[in-house]
Amino acid sequence: MRRRLHRLAPRPWLLIAAAVAVVVALLPLAYLTIRTSEAGWEAIRTELTSPRVADLGARSLALAAVVTAACVTLGVGTAFLVTRTDLPARRLFTILAALPLAVPTYIAAFTWVSTVDGFEGFWASALVLTLCSYPYVFLPVAAALHRADPAQEEVARSLGRGAWHTFTTVTLPQIRPAIAGGALLVALYVLSDFGAVAILRTDTFTRAVFIAFDLGFDRTGALVLSTVLVALTVLLLAGETLTRRRGARYARVGAGARRPHTPARLAALRWPAAAALTAVAALAFGVPAVNLARRLAAGVSRPGSLTEIATAAGNSLTVSLAGAALTMLLALPIGLLTARAPGVLANGLERLSYLTHALPGIVIGLSLVFFGINVAYPLYQSVWLLTLAYAALFLPLAVAAVAAAAAQAPPVLEEAARSLGRRPAAVFATVTLPLALPGIAAGAAMVFLTCMKELPATLLLRPTGMDTLATELWTHTTVAAYAGAAPYAALLVLLSAIPTWVLAARTGILAQEGTR
Amino acid sequence: MPISRLKGALALTAAAALTLGLAACGDDAKPAADADGSASDKKITLYSGRSEKLIKPLLEKFTQQTGIAVEARYGNTAQMAAQLLEEGAKSPADLFFAQDAGALGAVNKKNLFAAVPSETLNKVPQSYRAKDGKWIGVTARSRVLVYNPALAPAADLPKSVFELTDPKWKGKIGVAPTNASFQAFVTAITVQHGEAKAREFLKGLKANEPQIRDGNGPILEEVDAGKIAVGLINHYYAGEIAKERGVAPESLKAKLHFFPNGDTGALVNVAGVGVLNRAVNDADVRTFLDYVLGTEAQKYFAEQTYEYPVVAGVAGPTNVPPLAELTAPPVDLNDLDGLQATIGLIKESGLTP
Q1: Which of A31, B53, B101, B104 could bridge B135 with an S-S bond, Cβ 3.0-4.6 Å?
Q2: CATH topology (fold) of B141-267+341-349
Q3: pTM of the entire structure?
């Protein structure tokens, strides 16, 4: 049953840790403030009051709205099919649905453009961005659906509610935080994406920011434009906050372990549903894979030696794992704080961690260059600063996942543990953490996959001489050496598949319901 | 429950260990900062806005011959310029190898470059280096009109780039207005013919509904595939694509047209190098400059990147007319730093957001 949460006073260490994480996320904002104030009011006014800015803003928001709606439909639909039905090959579809996060939008867009003539503009961008980013909704929603208590649904059904009515009135409210969190991430991602909109020529703010860097090396103009993205983020955050019900909590409180769900029978729809998911996967991977394979066959350029490929793969794995680990460490306190001690302070901190999430990678990268040069010079161009950049870039992915999972974990369990004499640290390790683990795993998977393909900040911050799969891919494609690029692209997706599988399995999404 | 408890604790421990481990290696991986660098320490740090695929083999030869190790960072020229400006005097870079003169000018404006020694400067014609001697061209590239003879027979090609605003080219021209080389070309129109002419040209071009692409490569591919009739690009892309396909540049369907008679459409620009202030006395940096302007490197550029050598006595790429036979417009590359005005013009025309 849904119940109101009684507030707990936030523990000081949790507050401090959350504040530290927020500081990391806000580094880019400090940088933007410093640089734009140098530009002078006159320059800022000229840059921001042109009709072009209104035009770019409207188009960016429209694209974010369309892609978000499409991702929610696709993400929730897929999550429901793989967690709650007797769909065939559910494990496979679960992995396939998470993997598009490993396909960089610049590769997807590039392969689509060279496969379909005249593929460009708003709807082309919307399609590519949807295919690449619906896992942002799928992963948290699948985790939430898996953990939701089936007893509540069964009660509703036994009291005479129909399947659809039960879904909308019982299931949906339970997974609502996960959907809203995922949708927000998609919207912010669309605002920050450069790869797809550049190649498919859709004029959004981020494209204008990158172009400003290219056109006349106009750093100040680019940074002034970026401030608008922060303003758009505030708008989106306000919108998402409105959909939240304060203090609502969706968790079972009864004794014992949750029973697995009885999968809904799809009957005649079983194979059509599988075909639909296969079609989505074919669009998300098939088009890039076929195109790259064709280019591999047609081209004569070759990737570097096996050692170079292995080194790049190793580097990608190391920095992405480190990025995911640091991001999760920073996200945990914020996520727990919002789930366990909601209030103005906690919510404020959580919202602040999203503030820079719509900024393009190049701006985050430059702000970390600024931070490295002026504050942490010993760390400059070290793996450590790159890891910090990943945390600044992707903290909200992790926060959303942890908060959604923690919101589904009943706080009475922790209270019971405390009342029985366990110390807070022990309660955290033995009660809170295991309960939040699916969310943590889903969040870590998302951050890891996103780190694997990140390019602009990696190029600016990587240690000199260090190549990753993403930078190698970029190196080859910029000189039209597509055949040489293809193995890196394939490896990027393959290596992402392994941790996705492990994490998805740990999350429990992959556990075959009803067979244990 | 006990098992997942253990898992949770393990996950957290692993995360913490990994983070700490990285912190430890972070300390080892400090950027190399040799205090004044006047002596030769057999090591230089190069920021390359040019592709690793093209530059790395050359750097390996250099290291082999001189014993000087090159720490090279690769990136996009414009973004690397932004990085250098952000790093300022604390930059670990000794050299910046940029894709175009505009980026070198932007870094030079912030006084980050030291003067290149005059004996090095003198190896290169005056038109291919900075007036104040703070950067030097290494290779030259010409703007060209790439065309597909099946769609635009050679006899019908325009004598001047300004003819492309004629309605007969409507929908048939590929352009990459966000590309630095297109901007340099527009600036050159301003320098050669005045701002009014540049504005008029851009307006006419926009009215002709050009096929806008993200870069020169895609334009060339589509012209070659017969999807676009003509396109404004740099000459060396033909060599690059032919190399990827394993064929001679001459066998591409797409052909290159060099505008004659000093037309702005045949602007010759350079890729070049600037020396950061910290390396002003670094002997290794001088060795490097001499190497890239030496016969071996210049020949490498001509053969491997299809660019024009800028040093006398080295033959150019075989798929294009020699540099000396081109009638480049009388535009001083040093005058191409008035980019802000150009960007205003390009934005105003509606060719870019």
Answers
A1: B104
A2: D-Maltodextrin-Binding Protein; domain 2 (3.40.190)
A3: 0.81
